[in-house]
Amino acid sequence: MTELRVVEVAEEQLDSVWQVRARSFGMGGDRDEWKKSARSFIVDGRYLGVVDGDELVAAARVWPHEQWWGGRRVPMGGVAGVVVAPEYRGRGVGSLLMRAVLNVCAEKGYPLTALYPATTVLYRHLGYEFAGSRHLYTFEAADLRTLGGTSRGNGTAVRRAGRDDADLFLELAAKAHETRRSNGPLIWPRTEVESWLEDESNFAYVAEDGFVVYKWKDRNLAVEELIAGSEETARALWATVGSGASIAKTVEACCPPFDPIHLLVEHEALGKSWQNRWMLRLVDAPAALAGRGFPDGVVLEADLRIDDPELPANTGDWHLSISDGSASLTAREPSDDALRVGPRGLAALYAGTPLATLRGTGLVTGGAALADSAFDAVFGGPAAYMLDDF
Length: 390
Ligand SMILES: CC(C)(COP(=O)(O)OP(=O)(O)OC[C@H]1O[C@@H](n2cnc3c(N)ncnc32)[C@H](O)[C@@H]1OP(=O)(O)O)[C@@H](O)C(=O)NCCC(=O)NCCS
Prior knowledge:
Blueprint: E1 4-8, H1 14-25, H2 31-42, E2 47-52, E3 55-69, E4 72-84, H3 93-108, E5 112-115, H4 120-125, E6 129-140, H5 141-145, E7 159-160, H6 166-180, H7 190-198, E8 203-207, E9 210-217, E10 220-228, H8 231-242, E11 250-254, H9 261-264, E12 274-282, H10 285-291, E13 300-306, E14 316-323, E15 326-331, E16 339-341, H11 343-350, H12 355-360, E17 364-366, H13 371-379
Parallel strand pairs: 4-5, 10-11, 13-16
Antiparallel strand pairs: 1-2, 2-3, 3-4, 5-12, 6-11, 6-12, 7-8, 8-9, 9-10, 13-14, 14-15, 16-17
Helix pairs in contact: 6-7
Residues 24, 82-84, 89-95, 117-119, 121-122, 125 line the site of coenzyme A (COA).
């Protein structure tokens, strides 16, 4: 083994990446399609590899995502496809690669990075912590069919949507997430929404303040996304999907546990519902805090001591000031009352984990008496979730 080096993956190395992926995840998908998507990461240095001499032995890519936090958009580097060739595992190659990924996120100006972990150990060592979940629920189709009220519906106009509705879908989603102060969901690029709407296997409908996209999955139905700004629209859109109940017995849907559908359907979601947890890390603490929204009317003035061995720019003594829905993190003198956190505690705090949980895991120590409830009030809010895997 010569000295291992981190490189930006080049076009001619894609076959090697494909082979390491096959050894890591199994053979899956179409190689040409995968290469096409991989090129979009190569063009601006978001596909990283590790080489031993000329041989590519590990790779990871970074999606240029944006996430809603407190109802505001925060850029996030979504890490995916982390793979190390089997014969190179267990000797720090994954860690070397992930350190380079963190630096790419910093260089590209993503205040946050997130990922779905196959193993937590590697990512926790580098400062990631669980922050939210992707929930999949399965409903009885017959339950959804009757949500619209009478057999003539509830009077809400619902029409078929097409490619030209991409901007409208994005506007409706943005409005809903701003109003709900959503934490976690991704903001899709317009091109992705257009290709969704063009795809003949997706069925898209739009109402005045909402939309749904769904499709067949085996002999059942699956909702990709449903946004509704009112009870009437929620009922009308779910009932549109449920109208397939003569063929489909169930409808699966990714939605958060507090989605109104859970309080509208007669029977609770079926037992085979599941969740998949994702991890978060703050890359640039001042930018991440300034970028997210906070509840109106809550205030916090507190000192923080952050120790971040991987990203030393976050390390230091800070003052966190939150009011009027916004935060600022500014450098200050050390304080005995500072709440002490590392990157994992900071990520979990950012995502709304209660202080009692953070203290119970040792991820947070110190802090002024009585400040915990103030932290809970400002960072609490709807539980962080995502609808998309990446
Ligand atoms: C997961 C993977 C990327 C780790 O790469 P690696 O080069 O072996 O990682 P490192 O040697 O840098 O290990 C870093 C830490 O993670 C731990 N670790 C690595 N793989 C682990 C596993 N499968 N389960 C538990 N811990 C693991 C190591 O023990 C080490 O912790 P330690 O220092 O406390 O001992 C590699 O095993 C792999 O490619 N697996 C298959 C694909 C996959 O699961 N990718 C992750 C997708 S999210």
